[in-house]
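Chapter summary example.
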Amino acid sequence: QVQLVESGGGLVQAGGSLRLSCAASGRTFSNNAMAWFRQAPGKEREFVAACNRNGGITYYADSVKGRFTISRDNAKSTVYPQMNSLKPEDTAVYSCAAKITSIYGVWRSENEYAYWGQGTQVTVSS
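The structure predicted for these 126 residues follows.
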């Protein structure tokens, strides 16, 4: 089992920055590929960013490419998205997800991830 707890959400003005955190416990963190997803009110959950087990491979949704950076610290069992140049359309509940894997891949489908956090609200005002 993997437990995930997100933090760092809040209210920010358009053009601002925010850094979320997702702390993992329960299993060896370096065995997990990690990802962030978000869900805006009335919309389906969508992929944001993913990284492989050591953070050496990352993958981003087109909507956040160039603005968001996903990174991880395996010593702290934590994964971060640094979110810059935020836009009102980035407003959503952001959730991290974990996939236990033996390979160093990245996945963008939510169906690949068995473990999820509760989510943290990010609101970007115009």
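To summarize the output: The CA atoms of residues 36 and 96 lie 4 Å apart.
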